[in-house]
Every structure is written in C-alpha cells, then in structure tokens.
Design a protein that fits this description.
- By secondary structure, the protein is α+β, with helices and mostly antiparallel strands.
- The chain folds into two domains: 189 residues, no CATH class; 81 residues, 2-Layer Sandwich (Alpha-Beta Plaits), CATH 3.30.70.3040.
- The chain contains eleven helices and six strands.
- The strands form two sheets. A four-stranded antiparallel sheet has the order 2-3-1-4. The chain has a two-stranded antiparallel sheet with strand order 5-6.
- The protein starts with a helix and ends with a helix.
- 24% of the residues are buried.
Length: 296
C-alpha cells in the first residue's frame, strides 16, 4: 500500500509539472482567494482583541457615605467581594484619594494642603465584574447596600458600547463566513476545470482496465497539493508581513491603544483555517470531479 501511494504521489507531481499552466492557474486562484480570506481573518481577530480589551477596562465606581469609617469601608469591600458576579474590588480610602489628587494637582499644593480628606472625600470602591457584560447588573446590586451613597456604572456608555461591539462582531462573522463559502466555491470549481481538461486521460485509463480508485488517487493527490501550496503562499506572506508590523509597532495599535494579537497565536489560527480549507476543498473537489467522469 505504501509503495502504491508513493507511486500515485510521484505520478501526481509529474502530472502537475506536465500540466504547468493549469497547475499555475489553479494555485493562483487558491492563493488569491485564501489571501483575501487570511487578511480578513487578521482584521477580525484584532477587532475581537480590541473588543476584549475595551470590555476588560469596564468598572463600577462606588462612593460610600461620608460617615463611613475606613474600617467600615474595608468591611464593605469584603462584603462586595463575596457578591456573585464580582471579579475584583479595590478600596481607595479617603487618605489615598486625597494623596492621588495632590499628586495629580501638585501645582496647587498650597490650596490643597488645608483640606482634610475626612471631610472632603468619601471612601471609594473600584469594582470589576467577572464578565464585563454583567457590569450593569453588578452596579444595580451595589446600589442596594446601605453604606453606598453613589454608584457610577456608566450605564449609557456601557449599553452603547456593547451594542457597537455586537454589531462589529456580527458584521465580521458574516463577512468571514461569506469569504469562506466563496473560497470553497472558487477553489472547488478551479480544480474541477483542471480535471475536466484531462477527461481524455481518465477515459484512456478506464479503457486499459484501471480501477476507479486507481484513477482517483493521483487526481486527489494533485488537488491536495494544489490546496496546500495555494494555502502555504498566502499564509507565509500574511504571517511575515504581520510579524514585521507587530515588531514595528511594539505589539500595540497606537490609534486605539490596544495590544495586537501575538504572531504565534495568529499564525496557529490562520494555519487551521487556511490549510484546513485548502486540504478539505482540494480533496473534495478532486474526488467529486473525477467521480463525475467515472460514472460516464
């Protein structure tokens, strides 16, 4: 079996070289299609990365009542940490809040030096939800605590933000899905045309008594090679270009200040999609196209 497979592979390579122009046309079609798909996937992955980055910055600012002492504030913080849906809680005491203000407004130190944190600032809790989409729910729960004076959860901003992110994500998914279907259609038809141009070769092989699988194997291997080479070229181009961009920018998209997807993670995802499509569609296109002629 191993010897026969090696023979089929050798014949497939010879056939690809012998039918050079058709091979070039097939590989080019696969390359261009998967290049467009690959670039779209890079954009979609980084859009998702930006979405996760923005969601990770969502927090609820809880201001306790002025009469609450630092000890009571610490007890409230412990109580909030035990609430369902709460990921982290940071307590900012009156003294810490005043020190932060004095640091930020150092030029007005003379004015601020006379202020007492006990009479001017409340204790604050900075709360993050385990799931950013539960931020508003956590905010509503915090408003029910008797020690709480005010809760800022940015309800209008958060609602609009998630709406925009959902729209962007849905558009990206539809666009990538449409490109995947288009890639499958183009690659399959290109391989079918390649095999159609060699229908006489199939007829001759049938006349001399070759079995159906003996005829199928070389064409399937040719289609697989076309799919793999057609995926390898755009994969190499995209990963090389992306890595150069990643190194040049330091891994940060300066305009919106979020970290780009790392090159290794992106390369694995691209390889899964691009080589998966190339191999599956190559094998499927070759098998179905030969099957049509074998029935004749």
């Amino acid at each position: 079996m191993r010897i026969r497979l090696w023979r089929h592979l050798r014949e497939s390579l010879k056939s690809l070289v012998r039918n050079g122009w058709m091979t070039f046309a097939s590989v080019s079609a696969v390359t261009i299609t998967l290049l467009i798909l690959g670039v779209s996937l890079v954009i979609a992955m980084n859009a998702q990365q930006m979405s996760n980055s923005v969601q990770g910055q969502l927090e609820v600012n809880v201001f306790l009542k002025q009469a609450v002492t630092d000890q009571q504030a610490a007890q409230v913080a412990d109580q909030v940490r035990k609430m369902p849906g709460v990921g982290s809680v940071q307590l900012v005491t009156k003294a810490q809040g005043m020190a932060s203000i004095k640091h930020d407004l150092a030029q007005y130190d003379n004015v601020l030096s006379g202020l007492s944190p006990q009479s001017t600032l409340p204790d604050e809790l900075v709360v993050k939800a385990t799931d950013p989409r539960h931020t508003l729910t956590v905010g509503r729960e915090l408003k029910t605590l008797p020690q709480v004076a005010q809760v800022k959860d940015g309800q209008q901003v958060v609602t609009k933000l998630f709406h925009v992110l959902d729209v962007i994500r849905n558009i990206g998914l539809v666009f990538v899905a449409a490109l995947v279907i288009t890639a499958m259609f183009l690659i399959s038809n290109t391989i079918k045309i390649t095999i159609f141009s060699r229908r006489r070769e199939i007829e001759i092989m049938k006349l001399v008594g070759a079995t159906n699988w003996f005829i199928r194997w070389p064409f399937m291997l040719e289609s697989l090679i076309i799919g793999v080479v057609g995926a390898l070229i755009p994969f190499g181009v995209i990963v090389t270009a992306y890595h150069s961009l990643y190194v040049h920018t330091g891994g940060v998209f300066a305009v919106l200040m979020f970290h780009l997807v790392g090159t290794p993670v992106l390369a694995v995802r691209l390889a899964e999609v691009m080589f998966g499509i190339g191999i599956v569609i190559g094998a499927w296109g070759g098998l179905m196209s030969v099957r049509k002629f074998l029935k004749a």
